Prior knowledge:
The structure holds 2 protein chains of 2 kinds. By secondary structure, chain A is an alpha/beta fold. Chain A has helices spanning 50-58, 84-90, 112-124, 128-141, 147-150, 160-172, 190-207, 218-224, 242-247, 252-259, 299-303, 325-328; strands at 7-17, 23-34, 39-43, 66-74, 77-78, 95-98, 178-182, 210-215, 227-232, 235-241, 309-312, 315-317. In chain A, helix 7 links the parallel strand 7 and strand 8. In chain B, helix 3 (111-121) packs across helix 4 (127-140) and helix 5 (157-169) runs parallel beside helix 6. The chains are: A alpha/beta, B alpha/beta.
Amino acid sequence: MTASPLIDIQRLRVLFHGDDGRTNHAVDSVDLSVAPGATLGLVGESGCGKSVTSLAIMGLLSKQSSEVSGSIRFDGFDLLQAGEHTLRDLRGNRLAMIFQEPMTSLNPSFTIGDQIIETILRHRGGSRFAARERAIQLLRRVHIPSPERRIDEYPHKLSGGMRQRVMIAMALACDPRLLIADEPTTALDVTLQAQILELMRELKAESGAAIILITHDLGVVAEVCDEVAVMYAGEIVERAVVDELFASPQHPYTVGLLGSIPRLDHRTEHLATIEGMVPNMANPPAGCRFAARCPFVVDACIKAPPPLRELSPGHASRCIRAPLERLVS
Amino acid sequence: MTALLEAQNLVKHFPASRNLFGRPTSFVRAVDGVSFHVDAGETLALVGESGCGKSTVSRLVLRLIEPDAGSVCFEGRDLLALDANELRAFRRQAQIIFQDPYASLNPRMTVGQILGEPLALHALVPSAQRRARIEELLRLVGLEPRVARRYPHEFSGGQRQRIAIARALAVEPKLIICDEPVSALDVSIRSQILNLLRDLQDRLGLSYIFVSHDLAVVKHIADRVAVMNLGGIVEAAETEALFAAPRHPYSRALLSAIPVARPQAKRSRLILQGEMPSALNPPTGCRFHTRCPYAVERCRTEVPKLAAGAGGAVNHPVACHRTAELPPPEGVVPTDGGFSPALEKLVAAFSLSEEGPGANGVGIIGTPSQA
């Protein structure tokens, strides 16, 4: 990657202070950067910190219960130092987000038109009439049929796929430079998922916005992402260009994930399983966080935390035993 | 071989609105003439999008809801003729596992109580031996016997689904209906539950009706697949045959939409335009014609029957007027090209560490049926 990154995250750490006095390490020393026009997939299972990372970027974590440190440079700002006012100007404008649940992220008491127009007026100003015209254009752009009529409908009248399109239209309202999509297709059927992914590819080609796609589904990653970062227990354990990651994963956790997906042209009696549980993040282990579940574990893994090490240009792994090929040859 | 379960022309219409006098004025036609059978020891998958009626079918065959028309026979007996006592006895033969392991276990009962309830209800095990049986069930699904004293909230999603499976197994059923049993679980946990279901089937000779929208999972677990669209089966086939050559345009669209974890996957995508029409007012003729790229005038007026096609494939019926004229199915199902030999070995390392549930050889004990 030669172009200077659009967003550059350094040593991001998020701690949650619980009521019981325990502190949870939700995200630990995460470094990420996305170039303009690129799509980064952030993959991991429930609780790995991928959504918390996105909320930290958006500045949506509660100041009372969480402690965020590190730096997030976006468009000349450090988002972690920026005031609430600056963040409000950025959010929905140059920085937009799509959430997983289109059912709960639209306000049921306003028409979808009102909600899109509100965003446009807040950031762009102008007349309400012009904003309405733009909203209709946006709805057309996300392929909502007869947008002139749909714009005055309430969210409950729309199906799940339509609502997700409205969410995308709203996110695109001010031509964002970075779009964060948190599990945008998880609540949808496969046929709708294919439509939405197609739409995202199309929009990326048109607008040149960078996308951070958060998902647990490696299939979705393979379809739309250029680069992938795999997260486990609050850390990035592997980062690579998408083809590399799927052809030659260099962290055992990634290998386990790939093996546990049923394959279409290969029938096996048993799928690979990752035994054991995610470590307790109130008290993360001193060494590698995946060691307890790893079939390739050696003593050195448990002693010290492994660094994220670059194995080849653009391919980094947090495993001291990588490259893994030599373990099985 | 007579089928374990045979459903004929099941129909269920739910009232959607009523007039002033409480008479229904419109119906959601959730299930409209569905027939299928399940043999002993086999897995039949019902697949389709949300709202296609697959979950309604799974509840109809257990008589959790009453069908408006049609028949369900279990081992040759007509379930719809059973009275309340007989129905309860039948429920020993057939159980269901639900999608949401958080909502389907009573939070006020310990795991031991949850598993003990069916044993007491069906008077299966004398109370003195109940504890031993509960421990055995837990071991069978890969949990430690000591968890019997704990409450559901102390478990993760995957463990809860194991408890739900143990509860279903408690009555030694012949058939288990799995309604999206792994959709709510993370991928690595999902594979554990799928492996468990497989092992239990091999060891106990269970039949499954596996309701799912995830076709890769279906490919892995099912022997036969019935594809549903808007309340009807549009295609039924052996799993291998369906994935090798899907014959209905809807099946093709579903299969081509599967996201595969290979960036270089080859496929010719068939992306459906629009959304599933409402079951409140389904389209005339073929119910898929509004979204079908191959629809002609006949499809709009005439309802296609589920029938063996021109090739005479009796085991692969399809409900489409244009089956014979469709382009060949090449490239519809994405091919992923497989793993490199080194990656294959690395993945195998994850399978080796696994011991399988109840590795110490505990099976279902034989309390002979009271019949």
